[in-house]
Amino acid sequence: MDQTMNPNRPYIQRMLILLILSSLVRGASLQRTTSSAPRLVLSGWVPNACTLVVCGSSETRPKGEEGDQELESLKTQIRDLETELEGLKAAITKTQRVLLPPNGVMVGERIFKTDGSRGDYDAARETCSRLGGALAFPRNAAENSALQKIVTWHNRRAVLGINDMATEGRFENLNGDAIAYSNWARGEPNNLGNEDCVEMHEDGKWHDRGCTLEWLVICEF
Length: 221
Ligand SMILES: [Ca+2]
Ligand SMILES: [Ca+2]
Description:
Layout: H1 9-26, E1 29-31, E2 39-44, E3 52-55, H2 64-99, E4 104-107, E5 110-119, H3 121-130, E6 134-135, H4 141-154, E7 158-163, E8 172-173, E9 197-200, E10 206-209, E11 215-220
Bound molecules: calcium ion (CA) (2 copies).
């Protein structure tokens, strides 16, 4: 995939690593045995990974005050990680605000972006596939709003990655799954003259249309 289409990926990867580290440290617990010698037990859990248990040996186990110092050190590390995480979040927000418009919008982990090209339904699918993405379609109101912004910025209606070619009236995504979210305009879909594709208007509303019109191509990554 063209790296310019997803400028935030290094930040996202780094954030995920930090989140895992943070959850590991948060999962740490200091347990003391009933004997006079305290024992430090660090445990954390990561999906699809082994449980991590670190136990102090009898010779090196920390004494009470020493264990408290280690716990304070862990808390400090957590605070440092959280500070760095907040910085990364701010950097992502800034990157999104500065670099994506007027061609792209990020919603959660998903990026909607146009390369400015135009085409009918088949051409749009091919373009997005070539770019390493898929023809975009909104799964909720936030994603619909993101696509609407791009349509408005480019002043050009866009074709969505859904259709009812297989079964009239059953709109499905490119995987063949029936859509769970829709934002039809009043009176749509009406299949007027056999309309099996969907275009988004500047108001964010959907209209079923013939599949050979020329639309703005918006892909999702
Ligand atoms: Ca139809
Ligand atoms: Ca229609």
